[in-house]
Design goal:
Helices cover 32% and strands 22% of the residues. The protein has 352 residues and is of the alpha/beta class. It folds into two domains: 243 residues, P-loop containing nucleotide triphosphate hydrolases (Rossmann fold), CATH 3.40.50; 81 residues, no CATH class. The strands form two sheets. Strands 6-7-8-3-9-10-12-11 form an eight-stranded mixed beta sheet, sandwiched between helices. Strands 2-1-4-5 form a four-stranded antiparallel beta sheet. Helix 4 crosses helix 5 and helix 6 packs parallel to helix 7. The chain is globular and about 70 Å long.
Length: 352
């Protein structure tokens, strides 16, 4: 096992060479855009685009958890996949440890990806049903040519123990497990190469509530043990509050508010964030909450509204909201970037 870890450490050293990390942030996202073209007509010409992600920026420090929340269709999952270059971004920069991933070739990208892994929403669809669990967990080591066959099998057993599964499941197939067990296998695969950051794409949304808490606690334990950094994508604000240090709220491809988890729940400034927080249920039948129900539906990302994208559903909109798009900037009365909000009336709208 010592020889195995020696190989792992030496190969990791080659990846980063002798270069020191120049930034205090592990991951920097600058004006990221992901537009999917729409083709139509007889000659299948481009007639439009889906603006799934349309100019977002944020930073992630080593060891922290950033929550990314918003309703379905806002572009959360697209952000995660674009950060890993599963989608080639339309514009913008993704800088990981000083390397701009947007400019890397496929060859260099493969070597860098061992430090950036993903846990998918559907654990069954993300596991190859034709392969045993042993091979699924061994495959990352095979792809990156790490260790001998005996060392790989020993590491697979160690991974299973770490996520709370017995070694005897090595010869079983994905369909023989429950949803929670399959997600544990997905987590084991994500941590196999000891990455620095993991994109968690709604990893508990498909699980029962009792199983959700087990998976969340497992992620927290692994973060502390392995010094991991998470980008946690979800639509359940109660889950995000439990696990996140900072939270970014997305609406129609844009970040509308970004601050620490306590502030986002105690003093949300954007009307969309306020509506989301007001919808979180309270487990007390005698406590009445001032629910803010949004009218209308989410506009099409292929034809987003002009000005503020939320103005079609906002009860506080004024003419300026229709004409001018608000920029993500420091909240009124707040210095620095500890609380950012994109709203023309952020200083006027009272929190619920």
């Amino acid at each position: 096992m010592q020889a195995f870890f020696s190989i792992l450490i030496s190969q990791h050293s080659k990846l980063i060479s002798d270069k020191e990390i120049m930034s205090e942030h592990l991951l920097e996202v600058r004006n990221l855009k992901m537009h999917f073209p729409i083709y139509g007509g007889i000659f299948l010409r481009r007639i439009g685009a889906v603006y799934a992600v349309d100019g977002i920026s944020f930073n992630v420090k080593a060891g922290e958890t950033i929550g990314l929340v918003g309703e379905s269709g806002c572009g959360k999952t697209t952000v995660g996949r674009t950060l890993l270059r599963l989608y080639d971004p339309t514009d913008g920069d993704v800088i990981f440890e000083g390397d701009n991933m947007s400019n890397l070739s496929r060859r260099h990208l493969r070597s860098l990806r061992r430090n950036m892994q993903m846990i998918f929403q559907d654990p069954f669809e993300s596991l190859n049903s034709r392969h045993t669990i042993g091979y699924i967990l061994e495959e990352p080591f095979i792809v990156h040519r790490i260790g001998t066959p005996e060392q790989r099998k020993a590491e697979v057993k160690s991974l299973l123990n770490r996520v709370g599964l017995p070694e005897s499941v090595i010869t079983r197939f994905p369909h023989e497990f429950s949803g929670g067990q399959r997600q544990r296998i997905g987590i084991a695969r994500a941590i196999a190469l000891k990455p620095k950051i993991i994109i968690c794409d709604e990893p508990v949304s498909a699980l029962d509530v009792s199983i959700q808490s087990q998976i969340l606690n497992l992620l927290l334990d692994l973060q502390q043990e392995m010094k991991l950094t998470y980008l946690f994508i979800a639509h359940d604000l109660a889950v995000v509050k439990h696990i996140s240090d900072r939270v970014a709220v997305m609406y129609l491809g844009k970040i509308v508010e970004y601050t620490d988890a306590d502030t986002i729940y105690d003093k949300p400034l954007h009307p969309y964030t306020q509506a989301l927080i007001s919808a979180v249920p309270i487990p007390d039948p005698f406590v009445k909450k001032n629910r803010q129900i949004l009218k209308g539906s989410l506009p099409s990302p292929s034809n987003p509204p002009q000005g503020c994208r939320f103005h079609t559903r906002c009860p506080y909109r004024v003419d300026r909201c229709i004409r001018e798009e608000p920029q993500l900037r420091s909240a009124p009365g707040v210095s620095g970037d500890s609380h950012l909000v994109a709203c023309h009336r952020a200083g006027e709208i009272l929190s619920f």
